[in-house]
Design a protein that fits this description.
108 residues, alpha+beta, Arc Repressor Mutant, subunit A
Length: 108
C-alpha cells in the first residue's frame, strides 16, 4: 500500500487498484449511472456512495476520470461547491450533472 494513501475515517486502509486503466473500468460505471439520473453530484459523493477504490494516483486520477467523462459527453460542469472529502480541507470541487444524452442513455 502506498504511503500517500490516507486511512479511512474508521482507520482502515482503502482499496487501491494497481493501474489506472483497471481502476477506470471499475469506477466508470458508477459515474455513468449517476449521470443518467440527471442529479447533481461531486466525484467524492459517487465514490463514497458506491464504495469505489482509490486510484493509483489519487491527486491526479480523480480529475483525469472526470475530464474523460466530460470529453465523452457523459457529464457537464454545473458549479463549484466545498469538498466534503475528509482530507479535502473544504477546497472547491466541481459539481457535475449528466448530459442530456447521458440522461437518455445515449452515452456510456
Amino acid at each position: 500500500m502506498s504511503a500517500s494513501v490516507q486511512p479511512t475515517l474508521d482507520g482502515t486502509q482503502p482499496a487501491v487498484v494497481a493501474d489506472y486503466r483497471t481502476w477506470v473500468e471499475q469506477v466508470r460505471p458508477a459515474f455513468v449511472a449517476a449521470a443518467r439520473t440527471g442529479q447533481l453530484f461531486t466525484s467524492y459523493e459517487i465514490a463514497r456512495a458506491n464504495q469505489l477504490p482509490e486510484p493509483p494516483n489519487p491527486r491526479a486520477d480523480w480529475g483525469n476520470l472526470v475530464l474523460s467523462l466530460v470529453r465523452d459527453q457523459v457529464i457537464e460542469h454545473v458549479t463549484f461547491d466545498r469538498s466534503r472529502r475528509p482530507t479535502g480541507e473544504k477546497s472547491a470541487v466541481g459539481v457535475w450533472r449528466g448530459t442530456r444524452a447521458a440522461q437518455a442513455g445515449r452515452s456510456a
